[in-house]
Amino acid sequence: MLTISVIKADIGGFVGHSASHPDILALGQEWLTRAQQKGLLIDSHVSHCGDDMFLIMTHERGEDNEEIHKLAWDTFIAGTEVAKKLKLYGAGQDLLTDAFSGNIKGAGPGSAEMEIEERPSEPIIVFMADKTSAGAFNLPLYKMFADPFNTPGLIIAEPLHKGFRFQVQDVQNHKQIELDAPNELYDLLVFIGAPSRYAIKRIYNRLTGEIAAVSSTDKLSLIAGRYVGKDDPAVVVRCQGNFPAVGEVIEPFTTPWIVEGWMRGSHHGPLMPVALKDAHPSRFDGPPRLVSLGFQLANGKLIGPRDLFDDPGYDHTREEANHIADFLRKHGPFEPHRLPLEEMEYTTMPAVAAKLEGRWTDLADDGNKKKIMAAPIAEVE
Ligand code: F6R
Ligand code: MG
Ligand code: MG
Fold first, then answer.
1. What is the pTM of this model?
2. Cis omega before residue 288 (within 30°)?
3. Ligand 2: distance of its center to the CA of 264 in Å?
4. Which of the four, 135, 141, 267, 327, has the lowest number of CB atoms within 10 Å?
């Protein structure tokens, strides 16, 4: 069995929160290459989206393996040292604990792992996002695996026709449920339509039971109990044969879906699919970006990547994303551009509310109303 592990973290931004510094990425690749030479990994590829570094690794040690998680943790710690030396912004930002305790889950970094029997030909896509939250993939994953208007294979390809099973996590209450599409579609949508609370973790082919997709659902703010940074999730999707075709997997991103994140993690903005060369959010710290890297696996080796959004077929989506960005920005500090109070990552509300506490009066206090209205008239006279 082969395991694909994608573990990611923001360990320092260059400049501000806009990108990763090349020295950090080079160091990350150095560490993983050394782990390959020692036989811990089969292969690895270090990539980035915005200020997040993504470690894409293949090995035979299964999911949640302590050695693999420790390798990722140590790589992030070493990268943080470089970030500190260069005084990069937010060095070590996502590393929330002082010491590694056996598993990277709950320590800050996000992880998406799947164990597979490598097929004779195994195309996979790794999605990497920046300036958005876990749950941002609910809608596109739904379209890939449950919407026949996106994925004709659901109708006309025998191995897809029975549909897919969705494992959904309630990220606030640490619970999970499995729901089948198409038969439980309406029940599924009740939950995944609320992506700040419910996130799709895994998807399985119902005919074969094979794992089809996995996403990182780690919520930084819930782990830390305060705002640290955005989750900036990763997703791995298997393609072709018993799964949607590559083109069906990336088709949902022809719409720049509105997601949570962007400036200060407190705004709605369009998710813009970009080539790696454009995976550097700048305008208003965004708009949120998405990269998709395609690989062919060959006995665990990562053949690739192919930068799948580096395609004029997505030019109009990026243009639409810019129009949506302009439109939303016009709302300034108003909802629905700004997130609802309970979803905001930054807020001055408690401090401002405390300061003004004594100035609120009862709506029914008519005497006070007369006093306010009478004051300027008296002055005029
Ligand atoms: C959003 C993000 C940025 C920062 C913003 C302020 O996920 O990373 O938009 O929130 O640049 O950053 P600080 O508070 O670090 O100055
Ligand atoms: Mg950052
Ligand atoms: Mg980030």
1. 0.95
2. no
3. 10
4. 327
